[in-house]
């Protein structure tokens, strides 16, 4: 036993563990403790957790997750204990060290890229190599010519070349066989480019290709094209004098990521830098050969958005997992109508907590089935294009993925915060596991298409559909055509769908409301000629209504006879999934009641009954809540949450993090105002100032 | 000129400044730059900014702010440049150093407590001394006997004794003339107590007073009472062995604050520790003397909530200031209906940005007038009680302040995030100035009464009022009585108030909807006897409806003839304030349309017209937006925002923070995966691991 400096705490060293010895060691939580309570919760439901997990994630995924976890848990570098206490520069250092260690594992154990990505997901840093592994590598693979691929890919896959992704202006000097990059103003600086701030030595730069016209020498634009360029030296890791590049500084999240600013001073890159799989510029004649179809640009963006929907699902599931487990364990106040009951009520038994957490639980499943459907649609569209040059469904896929990106990332971002608040005071602690998730994921609503701005593209697509139907020039071919046509044929009615009685009425009500909003926007824009900009709020609401309709349709499809075997949920889970489907739908109808009423899809009488119906569904789902979140199979290692851990040992873990793992408690401070010393007895007056 | 290590950047040292010399030095933002744009914005409106500022804040406040600012701006310790990059322990150290420096100023310059609090507000750390200066000091002043005051206050005011505030269990051993504090379980640990984690040497502990009954020796409870106790030694700053106390670890915000856990092992405190102004325990006879009225507990809590409303107002104003200035400067996309226009549209001209930011601007004013009214009501109630023992309005003040705490802090918390997202990508940067505000203020919805839980007290109060009226036993004396009575006399009607035409119709519509919800809840609880718990969601909505009604009433009062001279806004601002009043009201009616429709306060016809009316109001307010936020007088020092700075130099400041002030750019990293070194050339392999 030793007494450590200034701590007043005794430690017992044995083998490789250090244990604090004080009177708290023998203390246990009050009975019933969290482990007991959550065990009881799990006996209240007979949902087949493993079967539901496999239905959601596939057996292959679950096994891969388990396997990679066993590597990460054994290496101290991936221990998350004190990372919340680190400075921003140390958070970057840690992120870099982890990305490198995972690569060492990958090389040693022959991991393929899917396995590495699983490791990246579980490590749960925003990796400083992220852009290298995704946007940069994908762009080279898709856009480089065979010759360029042969040169670059080995260097990129071996991480000799580490790349980022940026957009910029570009001018081309015709006589020099070089391109010139220049930033004439501060506002021309690139900004936010991940991996480029401190990590990368190369970048793919998407730039306006400008070529001097042979007749008059004036620059002509040929649109965005990808170029690969070196930004830092292989040995010194310094940029050339004609490039200024650095990290933009601290952010709301993404502490371990180096987002960049970059400016060029007439920086020259060779002709060979232009990635020329689809379009190219002849070296001798300066002749431009244009790409075959805009899909080459669309494709990877749409693929990215499909992944964003799948990510939104798991992010929301993660927040809901923490919240459901904690509010099952946490008790507060004895029921005032039965004061003789000694045990306080579990917080999840309060309707005020249920109404926040359980609809989000339902939403996580709604997002899942639509993410999955979008992935299937994307694969089908890509193979149609590749096999038969059939672009028919591309526009539909493109606009649907935009609307869903907007809605789903808003759901997940807001959902994390709702879960956080539903947990009361402890939700504010980093030990909740939701703080970093909230701050990192908070980027989603504004990146890769701002959630408000992109919805105008969805509305434009729908208005175009409506126009075709209105002028009678097209046949109803896609689902949306048929839906709109059905609405047009009955649009003078107020159908008042019996949404409490039939699933079909729910689907019809969502379609009706969405079609009504399309029709209203069409009248404003196409018939009355109102300005596009003046309708943007309408467009946003329309896009959300349309996307919600897609979510209920895809969710409901798993209960129909047409669902494929692999799409059907396991027997024992069907009933509660159906309750979740109805909860998502009815909760959304109530939240958006105004539009459902205005369109005539909902009557005031049914609206009055909705709160009761929603509460009944929540009562039915309540006993299954813990098993439902268990089915998402999110490991404790990823959750990093005292409140949401699988075994329910909430208070033991909270105390352990505070009393044994918090570095601030290793210091004793000088609280005398007349002394500038901060650490008691250290004579460190003024030291903190040097860090400012 | 010197070349600093590994930076590839040249610096020029002159006198006391260091300037980077590279090709970016001469770069300016594209024209028109932010300074020009925001200047133009200010010429578009003739709102008398200074007069409106004085109306909102008082001349005295503005002068005090300016005076204190001049102290803080001159001292490097208050420079916020790199504080976002610090580790959590350093954030605490910095917070402590700043609190001490401000105290040094206070002593040197003879600042009173109001002045010190202004400094605390401008320093904008959550001060590790905060609880000492507020809850601890206030409790001693209010609850200590004259003798105790004489002993403690000099030590407390000189910061020899530094105190915190906690609640705990307490047992009293009758024979020893001591109180015994004991924590039998881990869950009995105190948690979250600010200032107690590392800073305080004393605490006021609110504890259940338990005294053995003389007849049978069993412990009897006498309710919560305050005790003062020492928790750390004056010299060593260590706790005694019978106390375990420490900091709970990192949180979503409050990095500079040491929130505590604390456990007792049969810790004994003397009889004199009980603060005995209002109730006491006789040393010899063990006789308990009870306090005269529960106001002694109510009073300071209610005062706290009134301050929370005033704080919510300024926090929201701060977020809106940043957002309005930035979205006035930021341009994006040329208007598609007028593509010949060369200049891109200012983001604030998009309805999708207006609908997020301008109603929040209106809300900041709504919160102001209600905060002010609540302060006046509180002062009146306190003086009634002190002068004539009249407690008549206390219950009303208590429940109103609870409902408003819930609504106003939700508005402000959500409002910061809405502003952040409305600014697009740059809102995610710490340079927005909203990141720390969002994380610190995020504690508000769950502390000092969870925003959902406390609303049941509001509902209970209103149901009691309704019961009195229904059984006809009381006379309508308070405003809420009169409102409910008016509703009861006409409750079979559907009044369909013409809210677009008359202010009075707006006030009536809010009152009607709120009374309707009271009546509905009354029917459920009192008539049909439904369980209290089952009605909690209804209670929450009811409380919000009631609070919104208070907000529109107080806002509208400034336009009536009965408003006092000091309450009337300056001439040139009345019209736009009236537009803001209507915007807050109509926006709220649309957002809560369901309840307005259900109650019959609103017709479907008027609902259809609301979006147009809201847009017209936003069009009218738009040119005044920058001057309106200027009127809040929030200094750049506090905003700490590149995006929201007064002079509009957004891009210059963003670049300065990234290129010249970001410590991460002083390091060059080793990105080779096969090397464990992190800082290039440092040989630091494994160093980051030691920090985990």
From TrEMBL, chains A, B:
Main location: other
Pathway where it operates: Lipid metabolism; peroxisomal fatty acid beta-oxidation
Acyl-CoA oxidase C-alpha1 domain ranges (all copies): 298-463
Single Gene Ontology MF annotation: fatty acid binding
Catalytic-site annotation from UniProt: 448
Catalytic function, reaction form: a 2,3-saturated acyl-CoA + O2 = a (2E)-enoyl-CoA + H2O2
Keywords: FAD, Fatty acid metabolism, Flavoprotein, Lipid metabolism, Oxidoreductase, Peroxisome
Residue span, Acyl-coenzyme A oxidase N-terminal domain: 49-162
Cofactor: FAD
GO biological process per UniProt: fatty acid beta-oxidation using acyl-CoA oxidase; lipid homeostasis
Residues the entry annotates as binding FAD: 168, 194
Pfam family, one: ACOX_C_alpha1
Places the protein is found: Peroxisome
Keyword Flavoprotein appears in the UniProt entry: yes
Domain Acyl-CoA oxidase C-terminal: 504-677
Keyword Lyase: no
Family annotation (SUPFAM superfamilies): Acyl-CoA dehydrogenase C-terminal domain-like, Acyl-CoA dehydrogenase NM domain-like
GO cellular component: peroxisome
Family, similarity comment: Belongs to the acyl-CoA oxidase family.
PANTHER family the record matches: ELECTRON TRANSPORT OXIDOREDUCTASE, PEROXISOMAL ACYL-COENZYME A OXIDASE 1
Protein name per Swiss-Prot or TrEMBL: Acyl-coenzyme A oxidase
